[in-house]
Amino acid sequence: MADLSHHVGAVAAAEAAPRSVEASASSTHKPGAGYTFVPSNLTDGDLATSWQTAKGAHGPHWVRLDFARAITITAVDIANGFQVQDRFGDEFTLNSRIATGRLRFSDGSEQPIAFDSDAEGYTRFPVADVTTNSVTILIDSEHLGTKWHDVAVSEVVVIQPGADE
Ligand SMILES: [Ca+2]
Predict the structure, then answer these.
(1) What does DSSP say about strands 122-143 and 61-80: parallel, antiparallel, or unpaired?
(2) Which of 59, 99, 120, 143 is the least crowded, having the fewest Cβ atoms under 10 Å away?
(3) Which fold has domain 4-159?
(4) For residue 141, what pLDDT is reported?
(5) How many whole angstroms from 51 Cα to the centroid of ligand 1?
(6) Which pLDDT score is estimated for 121?
(7) Measured in angstroms, how far is the CA atom of residue 13 from the centroid of ligand 1?
(8) pLDDT at residue 164 in the model
(9) What CA–CA distance (Å, rounded) separates 34 from 142?
């Protein structure tokens, strides 16, 4: 289970619309500058919210989505980095983001992933109709941020069969 202490502000919304996805991570950055960096920011549909690693946290870094039941997926869409412009500048380049990693499924199978340093928006990683209870993103290397070295990911979306491509 995720550390529920990070979810205090989201309790009302979560009760109103129970989520079928529980997000967790190897570490979580403290709130700051008006932002939170909790794992649930990975699945809120908002590119302007991100999960980030705790300051000074050593790898390996990872995030995981646990589903309420096994689902079949055909692709994973990942919005890498912190995709927002604010008073500090372009947070995408200021923060670190994934360079290479792996998708791991609940059967233990893995698939490599890689991002160009300037890959904003969503990057789609097709998978071969995997049925799984979870998707873990294992982060193996990073594009270093120009200001901060916290690794950021804005959004993760699993694509199921029949979804519009
Ligand atoms: Ca988000």
Answers:
(1) antiparallel
(2) 59
(3) Jelly Rolls (2.60.120)
(4) 98
(5) 7
(6) 97
(7) 15
(8) 57
(9) 25
Residue 87 CA to ligand 1 center (angstroms) comes to 19
Q: How far is the CA of 128 from the centre of ligand 1 (A)?
A: 25
Q: How far does residue 73's CA lie from ligand 1's centre (Å)?
A: 20
pLDDT of residue 19: 54
Which pLDDT belongs to residue 20? 78
pLDDT tens column, 64-89:
999 999 999 999 999 999 999 999 99
* Cα–ligand 1 centroid distance for 22 (angstroms): 14
pLDDT of residue 7: 41
Give residue limits of the domains in the chain: 4-159
Render the burial of 25-64: b for 16+ CB within 10 Å, e for the rest.
bbbbbeeeeebbbbbbbbbbeebebbbbbeeebeeebbbb
For the chain, which ranges sit under pLDDT 70? 1-19, 163-165
The alpha carbon of 150 and the centre of ligand 1 are apart by a number of angstroms equal to: 16
Cα of 36 vs its chain's centroid, Å: 14
Two structure tokens written together for 107 = 């059967």
- For residue 162, the 8-state DSSP code is T
Ligand 1: centre distance to CA 158 (Å): 14
